[in-house]
Amino acid sequence: MLDRLTPSGVAVPAFLITWSLVVILPLLVIVLFSFLQVKSYRVVYVPTLGTWESVIDSGRWIVAVRTLRIAITMTLIELLLAFPFALWLAKGCKSKPAKAIIITLLTIPFFLDTSSRIIVWRSILGTNGIVNTVLTSLGIVDEPISWLLYSEFAVHFGMLGSYFPTMVFPIFMIMSLIDDDYLQASSDLGASPGQTLLYVILPMSLPGVVAGVVFTLVPLMAAFVEPQMLGGGFVNLLGNSVNSALQELKYPTAAALSTIVVALLGVCLAALILITRKRFDMSTMFQAIRR
Amino acid sequence: MPNGHSALATPTMERAPAAGALPAGQDPVRQGSVQPMLEVIDAVHAYGDVVALDNVTVTAAPGEFLTILGESGSGKTTLLRLISGLEKPYKIGALRLNGVDVSEVPAFSRNCTTVFQNYALFPHMTVGANVEYGLRVRGVPPAERRQRAQDALKLVRLADKYDRRIHQLSGGERQRVALARALVPRPAILLLDEPLGALDEKLRVDMQVELMEIHKSLGMTFVYITHSQEEALTMSDRIILMRKGRIAQAGTPHEIFDRPVSRFVAGFMGVENLMEATLTGLDGDDALVEVDGQRMVGTWSGRTRPAVGDKVVVGMRAERLHIADRPPQDPGLNVLPGRLDSAIYKGKYLDRTVLTEVGPIKVRLWDSSSSTAEQGFVWWKKADCMVMSA
Hints:
The complex is a heterodimer of chains A (291) and B (390). With 291 residues, chain A is mostly helical. Chain A has one domain (58-290): MetI-like (MetI-like fold, Orthogonal Bundle), CATH 1.10.3720.10. Chain A is built from 17 helices and 2 strands. In chain A, helix 4 packs parallel to helix 10 (164-177), helix 10 packs antiparallel against helix 13 (206-221) and helix 11 runs antiparallel to helix 12. The two termini of chain A are 25 Å apart. By secondary structure, chain B is an alpha+beta fold. Chain B has 2 domains: 3-111 and 187-258, Rossmann fold; 266-389, CATH 2.40.50.100. In chain B, 24% of the residues lie in helices and 33% in strands. Chain B contains 10 helices and 20 strands. In chain B, the strands form 4 sheets. A 6-stranded mixed beta sheet of chain B has the order 6-7-8-3-9-10, with helices on both faces. In chain B, a hairpin with a 2-residue loop joins strand 1 and strand 2. The two termini of chain B are 47 Å apart.
């Protein structure tokens, strides 16, 4: 059955056509849309640069830079947290029930609505929230710490939980695939645990790290719930701008902002591919791990 | 010592006696003349309720080729992992490498390396990087480690594969890379965990010879694990046969092959004819036994001396038995009349079953035209009739 699908003469074009229709075509339409205008709720099919001019003039590029900065910072934070956690989960955690429970817990962010999860933090981080109440009543601080909520700190903090699983899962998966024999061979040949981590675990889990970065960075570039709920209007990101443009029915503006997001992502991912490609050949890596 | 090999040999190895020089049956460790390279004293280990090692003591002399033989689950791999440090024993009297107790030393600080059963070559590195790995983690400069890796690859006849990727190699080539990688850090002891298990018949025989030559030229101590008695007999200076976490018998290939101490050892070493018997007399090593009322003379090979009347086992190898039309007249021989039954053609020889009063006996005939008669006699020498513990 599968053998009949292998001729690349059929499978590859079939995939390309389907993928183009479902994903790439809408993307092109969005780009095209940013060069059109909407007048009295109707699209005017006359090409114009007006939308792009207003986007640049209104200082939205600052938002774009802030979005990129926060997205990259958060991706790095998540990577630093997720890598050791995934390593422990895949290789250190010997109890099977514990592993199953942790994996289940990690999926919670996927089945709970983001807004309802995030809004809870307001009552914890606010000036009258739990943290400040405890700190003031213990006399650790004289007056409530104001930067806990409606700040960049709060936005970063709120994003921590939401984007942790997307980083952990791919890394955990690839680490589970690394045979313990490799780690034992490394140790047997005289490598300290740190050297084994650097020379064996890190390079072998790189495909998972790349996947984790992509799955985390991409949604971070479009995040709008956390900045809206915890940024208090001080931390607007591209996602918020797109959202408000849509609500105001400014479709070309939304399209232009989305184009910026996609372009920035494209640049980030291209950089990622260039960095990793120089050192490792991804496709043979997967082949090799399978043995 | 050939030039290509000298780069791998350490001064201590050169002092060690060449493996082939050890006379059969002599164990310098037991005689206390040489500091043993490896001493495992009273090792106990268990996986859950399953006892993997039950008070096992093993020693190896410098430059010795020691084989640990046993079926799967006998504890041989556990023993190897205790030595390498990849497994921590439940209880151990002492574990000394070259006289130094290493029972608390982590695996990466022990001066021994392992050739793993599935090789465990790093898939993300080239052949060269794999072989250099042990030097890289020890901080050896790149130029020197490249040189030493190339020497090792030359030793295993893979000099031109330095830049290859692991998945581009055949099974036999991977096996050699694994061997080179383990040899390069110049360990005091090389541990080999069924290294030839995944190779096909022809390649396995070639690699046996190659391993023996490498062992001889390096003078390194090899601890070799296998379940193949043929491999053990071919390669070893000394064999330790294990069963259910205990040592069933330890000795030279000759001792284990010709003088098995128990029914299990005899069966494992391929003795085809094993019969229960009663001991009726013992003079020195000459044993008189009775099998189903049939008297036989044999040689006692058990560990402790039995008492007359004890239940024992008689074993004869098929290739040491003879068939004749008329009974030979020498009174020192064992002779049984019987009817010649089925024959199995094996190419080089013929396996015939002879139905005798004490049951069917398998006889190996190298000359297929030796006997065609229906009735005949099986005879064998006293020395070829092994009497051992049940």
